Structure prediction request, 461 residues.
Amino acid sequence: MSLTKTFLVLVVLIVCGASAFAGGYQLNEHGARAMAMGGAYVAQASDGSAIYFNPAGLAFQSGFKVMLGTTIIMPSATFKPTTSTKGSTTTPYTTETKMVDQTFTPINAYITYALNNGLVVGVGVFNGYGLGSEWPIDWDGRQMSVKADLMTWYINPTVAYKFSDQFSVGAGISYVSGSVKMKLRATTISNLFSTPLPTPSAKDGTVALDGTGNAINWNIGIMYKPTADLSIGVSYRSLTKIDFSGTATFTDMAMLGGGNFPPVGTLPNFFPGGTGKTTLPLPSNLFAGIAYNITKDFTVEADFQYVGWSAYDQLLLDVPVGPSVTLPAALGGSKLGPYQGPSTSPKNWEDAYLIRVGGEYRMDKLALRAGFIYDKTPEPDAAVEPMLPDANRVEATVGFGYDISKSVNISATYQFISFSDRNASISYKTALPVVVSPATVINGAYSNSANLFGVNVGLNF
Prediction:
């Protein structure tokens, strides 16, 4: 009885945790010019990406402008084990596992139009959160995660007003649409009633989750220019709680039964899945920055970004209550279950911050840019997992802009992200949790990095 129940509770908790992997997957690359300056842009915000960084920056722009771009993101992660523990036995472990190579291409698109009365209107479309992870299907951590993908789309109409040549405000509201997909492997058994212990299946089953959701978000900003060479910007984007609804499916689950007893049914019968609902926080962001023109051709900026990840303290998964299972009369005929129902998973993430510095040097039609970022992870040590092996990051950026003509310009950038190594462990079992044989726990560390390439084309009418 406890064997089956323990397994099904485990699956519920895994699905619950996996559906919330959005934490730590915030995207800040929403324009190649800003990206090249390390994202230190809230006090300048002098192109269409002001819709994201600081909507007040739109008020100092003129004309009708279109800006289109993308960022090519190529992450890399490796789990490097040190020891393996099973029961009281600890031995060296040397098999490294590299995450499957993936490429992501979040987009950004902005249209802005300046009226003659100090008012500027615009709309932006960008991916505020996204990316994912994928590990080999049969790696040692497969029962924790194999694949996870998240994508959110922000449609952000914005308005800005310039009160004077020194001061402006801006505000916007966003419709946010998101989707999440995940897959992991699950231990299963082929014979529940074999003695003295149930018989493990030869291979794991597969659990998959596919969900979608939407929400509303808002952002505001101010910009103050006390002198012609000094600019101060502050902006805020609100916490968004996005409601996801998804379907869990189970494949390759073995038959329970065997011996002198008839089959009780397949694991999907015990845990039929169905529609699950959960609410995920996309955290608030507070940006503050100062930009200064050292010369008429050389501008530097320093920014501070504070991210409210503490909103991700727990995750409640609301799933339908599943059926009970009745044992054969020879085993007493008692009912087991229900095994499926609502579940809560603690997360306890912490508020985090980013420090950004960057600069731009202009030479006629060409502009050279560079920047540096320190990004503190919100993920506590106890929460590190292969679905999201996050860590503190240092990031370096370089790029350029070029005016092809008075109406057309292009910006391009390269960004390298280096993560600190993060100690963690993975585990797996070859039978269900209640079986006497303990799980194998592999201790080690994640080593991560990423290469990013951004490009934008601007059109001025």
